[in-house]
Amino acid sequence: xxxxxxxxxxxxxxxxxVFGVLLLALAWGRDLAPVLVALVAVVLAVTVxxxxxHAEVVALRVGEPFGSLVxxxxxxxxxxxLIVTLMVSGGPxxxxxxxxxxxxxxxxxxxxxxxxxxxxxxxxxxxxxxxxEGSGGALATVITLAxxxxxxxxxxTTTPGPEFSGPQLAFAALASLALYAMFVFTQTVRHRxxxxxxxxxxxxxxxxxxxxxxxxAALASLGLLLVALVAVVGLAKIESPAIEAGVRAxxxxxxxxxxxxxxxxxxxxxIAAARAALRDRIQTSLNLGYGSxxxxxxxTIPTIALATVWLDGPLLLGLGPMQMVLLLLTVLVSVLTVVxxxxxxxxxxxxxxxxxxxxxxxxxx
Length: 365
Hints:
Blueprint: H1 12-27, H2 34-62, H3 66-90, H4 97-125, E1 128-129, H5 132-151, H6 166-190, H7 215-249, H8 256-278, H9 282-307, H10 321-338, E2 342-343, H11 345-363
Antiparallel strand pairs: 1-2
Helix pairs in contact: 1-2, 1-7, 2-3, 2-7, 2-8, 3-7, 3-8, 3-9, 4-8, 4-9, 4-10, 4-11, 5-6, 5-9, 5-10, 6-9, 8-9, 10-11
């Protein structure tokens, strides 16, 4: 994305957040006709794209790896908002929504975003290069977070079923926050160079190819990003009954609602990673993929744990056998991909096949 110092007041990225807030004010608390529900869905999708665009502008201003962090946090805020709003209105059927969404986010980021980036990068530039130290550390954090929050609940015995007891959930939430904080400190302060793009000679690149926006444009984008996030949270609440009804009408399992949420919020992130890969910035793509997975677990689980104070019903976090097999296979393949510090189109294709398997089995379990 080529940013300029001027800020276009009449661009769609400026209009969408403002229109989203206005539509939210008009539609809140009303019974909407099908045409208006469709309009809300379109505005919601466009506002999500606008939110991530403004996050990209801010990201270009602050540079890597801070830019990837801004994008990941912005997307995770949207994800958490969608999960909470659907859990509030979903009743008992929504008890596994957090698990389904977080697991879908992990599979989409580690297989979808990473796979698309590696494939596009290899097709255009040949062998893709990245920093194995930074990517390996990020992947290790993803694996630990996923195991602590999504695998262990299936095997704990204090509470029957795939759920934590109160103290166990509190520990998992605090552990997730601690791991996320350590990763952010490592990525942005202590070992920032581990997360910067590298050249064929192993030289770390410190400058982005795109022109950084002015401070005024970055501040304007930050303000519009906040407006867009408010609009997305509210419009998601309005649209939540339609999302669940659409999944039921298609004959898909209720757990597919989590996949829809993850696909919606991670689509712009995927586009950003693909753009970076085409510019031969594979490290930036991996930062986006693994960073989004870490933020998705590290911020979502503590927020949902806190929300259980006023949410009724159980919180089912443990994965089933089929999901654990897919997670284990993803972990093994990801380790083999990251360790060499370089990858070809083959690795990208393998990750995309794993994503396809996840999506197929989500519809036909």
